[in-house]
Design goal:
Length: 335
């Protein structure tokens, strides 16, 4: 069903940062233009592209009056999104990455939930396309209507909320006093806990509607980069928000942070260039040790994640590689 523009149909501002994506931008914008909910303001931000992205933005804009183009110096994803937030006029806000695309009725489904004025945020699942073309769905099996506390628990435990900005529709008011931190790695993970805290009701739809595309040529799993290490600081935001406002959820926030730091350590340990990051490895192992001890003070975390906490403890004492070799030897002896 096509939802047409009119005085009683509220507008969605769709913010699309674009940097050197001339090969993907048209597919992305086409998926927005063809939405069944069509009262849209589509803001394309050319973030100082060095290819033909800026020219393509202007060409596309001439084909649809709903499209606005901003050209700016390169400032990164957060800065580009903030530029869109500063000029958008819609009652609702959405972010789309310029090399992704969305299902035709995504905004219509989201806006049906927004008819309830208590709903501040609506999230959908992802359709992930791997670099080899295979696809998989990620998201909730059932529609969920959550309080703030329940949304935090979902983020930490069920992981259907996803610490991502792009699969969600927001009421404009959420961004009145909030912006993405410029220059921050994993900026979505940093801002999502702040957004959840100022929401009323959150809805997660049991439909995968956002196409997240993994491209060939991205950093491979065999390589570790300093940005992987620097990106772990964002998980502390969720811990701090819960410490201040949701003490019942704090243990799960602390374990969430610990598990993500451990995942980063494992990526480093398994990487081909791990010798280049020996200082970062020492710091990661020290942080994991401290945060494991912290998590052990909560009985519910010990009961639920006792085995994982034991693994973390062994890994930081003898090192992940040594632990992995011992596990393989033990498995061979059993065989």
């Amino acid at each position: 069903m096509m939802v047409s523009r009119g005085e009683d149909v509220k507008k969605i501002s769709v913010i699309v940062p674009a940097y050197n994506v001339e090969a993907f931008l048209e597919k992305c914008v086409t998926s927005i233009i063809q939405q069944t909910y069509n009262n849209l303001e589509i803001i394309l931000i050319d973030d100082g592209s060095t290819d033909n992205t800026g020219v393509l933005c202007d060409q596309i804009a001439r084909e649809d009056s709903r499209i606005v183009v901003l050209h700016k110096e390169n400032g990164g994803l957060s800065d580009a999104r903030n530029a869109g937030l500063d000029v958008c006029t819609g009652e609702y806000i959405s972010f789309i990455d310029s090399d992704d695309y969305i299902e035709p009725d995504m905004y219509e489904c989201m806006m049906e939930e927004m008819e309830d004025e208590r709903v501040s945020l609506v999230a959908v699942g992802f359709i992930v396309t791997e670099a080899d073309g295979r696809t998989r769905n990620m998201g909730a099996q059932l529609r969920k209507r959550l309080s703030k506390e329940e949304a935090f628990m979902n983020l930490f435990e069920e992981e259907e909320m996803f610490p991502s900005s792009v699969n969600k529709l927001y009421r404009r008011q959420l961004f009145e006093n909030l912006r993405f931190k410029k220059g921050m790695i994993n900026e979505d993970t940093e801002i999502i806990p702040k957004l959840l805290h100022i929401c009323d009701t959150i809805v997660i739809l049991n439909r995968a509607m956002y196409h997240y595309v993994l491209r060939k040529g991205s950093i491979t799993q065999s390589e570790f980069a300093i940005r992987d290490y620097e990106g772990i600081v964002v998980y502390a935001t969720a811990v701090e928000v819960c410490r201040l406002h949701y003490p019942e959820v704090l243990p799960y926030a602390a374990y969430y942070e610990l598990s993500r730091i451990y995942e980063t350590y494992v990526r480093l340990a398994k990487s081909e260039n791990h010798h280049s990051f020996w200082k970062q490895e020492i710091i990661l192992r020290f942080n994991i040790a401290l945060k494991t001890v912290n998590c052990l003070k909560w009985k519910r975390i010990r009961n639920k994640y006792g085995r994982e906490l034991q693994i973390y403890s062994v890994a930081v004492i003898i090192g992940y590689s040594s632990m992995y070799r011992l596990m393989m030897i033990k498995r061979e002896n059993r065989g």
